[in-house]
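Honest question from a wet-lab person: if I give you the sequences of every part of a complex, can you actually get the arrangement of the whole thing, not just the pieces? Trying it with mine:
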Amino acid sequence: MIPELGHIILITFLVVSFVGGFLPLASVYFNNQTLDIPIKRLTFFLFFLIFSSFLILVYSFLVDDFSVAYVAQNSNINLPFYYKFAATWGAHEGSLLLWILAMNAWLFSFMYLAKSPDKNFMKVVFSISCQVMFAFALFTLLTSNPFERILPIPPLNGSDLNPSLQDIAFTVHPPLLYFGYSGLLIPFAIAVSAMLFNTNTKEWAAYSRPWTLLSCAFLTLGIALGSWWAYYELGWGGWWFWDPVENAAFVPWLLSVALFHSLIASESRGVFGKWSILLSIFAFATSLLGTFLVRSGILTSVHAFALDPERGVFILGILGFFVIGSLLIYSLKDFTSNEVKAYELSSKEFGFLLNNLLLVILAVSILFGTIFPLIYEAITDGKQISVGAPYFEIILFPFALALGLLQGMALYLSWGVTASFNFLQRLTLESISLFSLVLLVLFILFDNLYLSSFATIFLACWIMVGTLQISKKRNLSYWNFLKKRMAVTFAHLGMGILVLGVGVVTSYSLEKELILAPGDEFNFGDQTIKFKSLEDTQGPNYFSKLANINFEDKEDIKNVITEKRTYIPSGQLTTEAGIITEPFQDLYISMGDNLEADIWSFKVQIKPFIRWIWLGALLIAIGSMLSGIKRIQRS
Amino acid sequence: MNKFLTFSFLFLLTFGVFASTDRVFEFEKEAYPFDDNIKEDLFYSLLNELRCPKCQSSNLAGSNSPISNDLKREVYELVKEKKTSEQIKEHLVERYGNFIIYNPPVESETYILWFGPFFLVFIAIFSIIFFRRRHAL
Amino acid sequence: MKKLIDILPLFTFIILIGVLFSFLSNKNNQLETVLIDDTFPQFSLSSLKDSSETLTQYDIKKLPALINIWATWCIACRIEHPFLMKLKEESVLPIYGLNYKDNREKALELLERDGDPFEFSIYDFEGRLAIDLGVYGAPETFFIDSNGVIRERHVGVVDEDVWKKKFAKYLDE
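Yes, you can. This is the full assembly:
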């Protein structure tokens, strides 16, 4: 009964979103008051509908209603309740519901928080958003209904949630990521509306900027969480694999960063109007594209959902409709040129232009590299190729270098023209000083300096110095400057810290594969590893072989556990790594195979500075979020 | 202060880069024992670059499937035989095709992949400079 | 010129969508076979039945032939087994087995119980010959022509359908 209710609510949502996608537009176009509907209340109603539908699905999971096919496929009686809750988005159908919920949350926030005197503009933004939500709801109901039932005899127990998803990170990573992806709907709708009304660039950029920033913040958090999760879950100690699905999230992130930078220039100086519109469209497009890539089955990936080309066609259709539609408007529209002040090559505007150029080309390259194996197979008639980490890292490096150098200088640039570049000399010297300090610290900590890390570490220092020392230019103390420019300082500083983490962990990591029996010791770096004991334990839905390990160095002895779990009923194995977090490094050990008797293979690693990567990302997210919230309050 | 740091920086650069601590190897407990750093580093970097042919999307380092373990052993033996990185990759490509290396080869069909990004940057910069007079953006 | 630039994003995107659509219809789930037209690799491994007997590539005398990769842990191989027996009974062409990373006793038991379609089976416990063949699982089947050259390879179960589509044509040469 209750799942049927969820289904009916979803159908109601479909109808209401259709009305919402059509009537307000018609009332504006035909200038007809009778077609007008209260869009704010409608937004609330839509949100209420989808939230209820989602809640019903969650409820079905929590009460173990295995008559619902989706619950039966993704849950189990013995699953801990928090995983039952998260299992709602554990597979394709439920995750779509989450997508729609997220889009609604954004629209709801926008309609109630954004202050725009132009009612018609808001109506068009509302309508376009409704159209997108309608498309998703249609897709869900026609091909991916989460409320489908197994009747008349429901199974007594479910198949279980994929064991590698049974982890705390799973409860937060997908929602954050989806909120990031779907948030780009608002800038998209604003851009299309701006085209239709020929809105003044400074005006619409001001509307769009906070929402772009907030989406970016969520994407940053979602991606960083994904990276952290992969690190401790997959057991090989890596934190970014350039997996197609990772790339599918990274590309919209790059474009959203490019977008809000472009919007800064658009809002302040009225430049890049057409470009910001294009970027808004493509940021949302790549976000939809990411959804497509994960569910269509054309790319093999650890992440890929249950594959179905038919669904791929539908998503591609949605993507095609909205993007081609908006690009058609773009092609046909006559953009009245706003009065735009000229800018020199030395200006802040040009800096933003370079920033955008680099970010967008990087994004295009990553996207292209991700789908290239398919293109290659087509043009060589069957030969196969892999494009992975080595390729992406080689391509990324020059772009990251250029972007980083730009970022360090960015705050020193002025609108129109930058009077003097004298700051460069000081910036260079101070960066070198910080660089030497960092090298000194690294040498004290790790007894080694690696030439391969120098460029990245110097870049990090350059970014950090550039971000902080700008306060000197304004004759402010660090603290006063921070209060005035908190958001950008956090964000740029965060990037510097992230780059430092990457630079150190890439060159300073140590790893080894060991074969140990209980009682064995091994010297690794400055640690002595002791395999203390092997135990048999179990959890709510798994059996485990648990290895008790000690890491001992001059200072103290640290204990950690690594496990090999066998989940019931799927029989799937997972490896739980044992990680000790120290201020400057992670000690990492994971179980491999049981070779014979009690002898196991282990992979042990030392990962210096790895936490700084996620710390940096967190700072970036905080910075973006601060800026977004501040601007919403201001508008 | 700056001078001190600059001086210590130069000192560190010269000293630190060349003073690499020797690793201690304990053969019985290592799954893949080597007798020098260079071979060991080569081995582990290859494991990151080579793809597990059976897995959906994983490198050899991240996979414990039987074929991955066999391939790790194969790479290990080749590294011990003092083969270079190129030779080892060649050896595997002869058997499994280009699919098995994550670094795509540079050949005529992949020129667009390798040179595309830089070509785009070039075109973009060129266009900007060319169109600057018109304030097109 | 200005209008042309405005149409460019639309044009590029339509191409992208078209390309992605085309990818949806392709469904290839096999690793490409690089060894086509190469001679069968050299090897020196023991025979499954007699651990003291060493087999090499020269022992594959009756050509053309099929080389079948199999193991007791491979469930799909049991599905394939009857078809291989049929090929043997009808004397279509000789089949040589490569017992892949298996337990000798269990393997011999299986052949005893279900029948032995192979001229002989090579005992590749460590999977070395398998690697030289680019094998990554079981079952897999190779076709070798009368000159000992690999002409075709199939990953997965070989049944009547697969035989007709992929292998039968090589017999006519």
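Two things worth pointing out. Chain C touches chain A at residues 6-7, 9-10, 13-14, 17, 19-28, 31-32 (CB under 8 Å). The two ends of chain C are 60 Å apart (CA to CA).
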